[in-house]
User: What shape does this take?
Amino acid sequence: MSVLELRDLQTHFFTDAGVVKAVDGVSFSLDEGEVLGLVGESGSGKSVTGFSILRLVDPPGRVVGGQINFRGQDLAALPEREMRALRGNKIAMIFQDPMMTLNPVLKIETQMVEAVRAHEKVSHAAARDRAISALDKVGIPSPAERLAAYPHQFSGGMRQRVAIAIALLNGPDLIVADEPTTALDVTIQSQILAEVQELARDTGTALIWITHDLAVVAGLADKISVMYAGRIVESGPTDAVLTAPGHPYTAGLLGSIPGHGRRGERLTQIPGMAPNMAHMPQGCAFGPRCPHVSDTCRGSAPQITDYGTGRGLRCHHPILAAEGAA
Amino acid sequence: MSTTTPSLPEAVTTDPNRPWRIAARVAGLAVAASLAMLLSGVGLPALASRIILLVGLIALAALLLRGKYAKFFSGPAAYAATASLLLLVVLAIFATELAPQNPYDLRQLDIMDGRQPPGSTNFDRSMTFHLGTDEQGRDILSGILYGLRVSLSVSIAATLAAMAIGVVVGIYAAWAGGRIEAILMRIVDFQLSFPSILVALMLMAAFGRGLDKIVIALIIVQWAYYARTVRGTALSEARKEYIDAARGLGLPSWRIIFGHLLPNCIPPLIVISTVQVANTIVLESSLSFLGVGVPITQPSLGLLIANGYGYMLSGQYWMSMYPGVALLAIVASINMVGDRLRDTLNPRLTR
Amino acid sequence: MLVYLLRRLAQSVFVLIAMMIVVFFGVYMIGNPVDILISPDATPAEIEETMARFGFDQPVYIQFLKFVGNALQGDLGRSFVHGEPAVQLILSYMPATLELAALGLLFSVAIGVPLGVYAGYKADRWQGRAIMTGSIFGFSLPNFWVGMLFILIFAVQLQWLPSTGRGDTVEVLGMRLSIFSSNGLQYMILPALTLALYKASLVTRLARAGTQEALTQDYVKFARAKGVSETRILFVHVLKNIMIPIITVLGLELGSMIAFAVVTETVFAWPGMGKLLIDSITTLDRPVIVAYLMLTVIIFIVINFTVDVIYTLLDPRVRVKGEAA
Assistant: This one.
């Protein structure tokens, strides 16, 4: 059964320079216990998509269209009161920079207990017990003592573990993780990755893992959606997308990762820069950077096309089709 | 300047801000000259020169906001404040012409007219006291107009002089660096650690009453504030590359300081000094209220309020109330205009 | 931490010495010290005695040391008007001023913090703008005029509260305080509110700026993501963060509260040291003026020092840096 289904999500930022369509018609769905890797460069709208699900987009940004169906309820139309009851309870979020997400002047205990008590009428002691077990679950040693500490007394990796523990506190159905390992050391990154994977599998929590790094989601995600300029350009099962990317952009992202079995091969990079979201190019947004660009691309923006087995592509000249024709 | 000057300074002096600077200098001179005449006892400048002063001030304000009107007039409050400030300044500049009576001329006052409520007339019905009279039979409306002039001129003079001293000290400290800077800034810190009202009170207790004395006291309590601000701006400017470039060209120090460093310190100073004029008016009126400010013969708004205070509890509110309203109006409109100026001119705050 | 405190202490002592020099040269060297320190109707014998006690016949540096010595023993001359030693006189007036300033500070926080936090929360709405415009009026209203207005409205027209003077006092720790008696408190409300108004505007602005900044921080967003209520976010997460700068500024402002009390006390005929100062200025009671000056300097130094210490204790981050240093 699907936990979350986004249908044509539109999140726009109304700035002085004009309307920026940070998220422009994003759709995907997620089943129980499923892990989705949402991949894209910075500014592609992947984080805004994450925040839109929790309705936490800061002004001047606003969800202006589409549906966010969570267990059959459209979050986009939900009153703020009921939305708040879901946040941190049924839908949790983990942020990018662990140094900034915990309030520097409040004890860990305060910040964890309030997360429990915001949703359940339990005693402070009961909430505290749950906080201890959550900290224990994410591998923080002597959690009872650590509760009395302030965030600055933890390292970055430890803080991110605390943030993950907070996300797990109320046993959510869905966790949105916004590049939670980007700010961490590589070793800690892989540890946390492994732990989160295990936790998600144990609890059956669906997970949206937002990242700019295809390598991170390779071992983690069941399926991948690649975003470019506010739109999903390719989606499909992880293995399929990684082994046979259909969109030139995905291919470009893959080509820039140093990986196994490609020793000696030259790393490629995508030429040019991500487009200015206030002044999008005519036609296909990726056109100006695309090696296969044609007049069709410049003339009209491609629509998403279903290629079966959960694969979707937004391209006039997908690599799959080219191979098939050859 | 000799012909060997490199061409860059010419390029710098013909920048688009040149008319702005010339206008600023002319208007500044007009303000300084008028204030000097008024406060040194020479007397009021002629009507014509005061009209020129008013026009100069408006032109200066218009040039300052050139191209930023939309930003400045962000809401009804901005319009109201600007209009009220303009009105009050006009009233102050042309107090002599507008006031029904010269409240400083004791011969025009009749003790028989003392403490008349608003709307009453004098003995031979030749004059109506729209806002009542004080205990000496002085028309409150005339007192307010003249008092407005005293309050405004004292605080503007003190603010300008303090700013000049502060700018010199601040830039010198930033330019000289090292021990001189450390010592000067210690003095500034030392002075700023005491509230201005206390320092001014002590100074006035030592000096005695007087227009010139209160101006001096107000200069002394303010200069350090400017020195600190200017030094901060000058230090951050001095670090920028164009100063290095100017030094590399072998320009003399004074030219770099006055041609490059100083102009860049001016925008924050305009904002600060606007608000500071309001603060100074409050400070002066407080001192006058406490009896250590302006002389009784030339009452400012604060002294008018103090004079009427004794009668307030017996219900003769107008002697204190109306000067107080005028004081509030001038201070609030200056503060509001200052607030808008900060939002308009301070690039750091613009999003 | 200890090193830091010692360094701050040394700075304070330096300021005190500097101030002594300023006062000494200001009061003693300009003009005839005899005129300043001795009553005009003193007998020649008294003049002789005081001259010898302060050593005016001696070289300047010895005079200065004597002045410092006397000052350290709390001897800054005798009031001409009251006949008491000036320092003792001021100390006996001090509790009234301190309790007024303390209540004023309390009022300014109680008024300013909620308004400021709300204005920061609704920064772009009319509520926020209205509060900010209101705070400009708070800045602009001269202290003495507000006091008069309060008297006119609440004492004369509505007759809710007494107009001037000080009510009953209770002796607490050897000081006569009126804050603990209900009658005394009634007399305090108007002057304390008057004193608080300017600071309340300041606190409003500080709290607004702090709130606006804090609301853009990730930890606020994270708290929202936890489902924490907006009220709790504002009054726990945001408030705890902005209280540190507010307390610092307010602590520093306690000194200026005492200074501004001069005006408020005059309006409300409140028998504090500010009123005493004004009375002394009018009656040219110079020893009291000198003593007031020296005592306020000491108060300021103590306040600055205490604020620094509290600040260090309040902010866990500063604490750690201090320990590491």
User: Anything to note?
Assistant: Residues 24 and 231 of chain A are 6 Å apart (CA to CA). Chains A and B do not touch (no CB pair under 8 Å). Chain A has two domains: 2-90+170-260+268-321, 99-169.
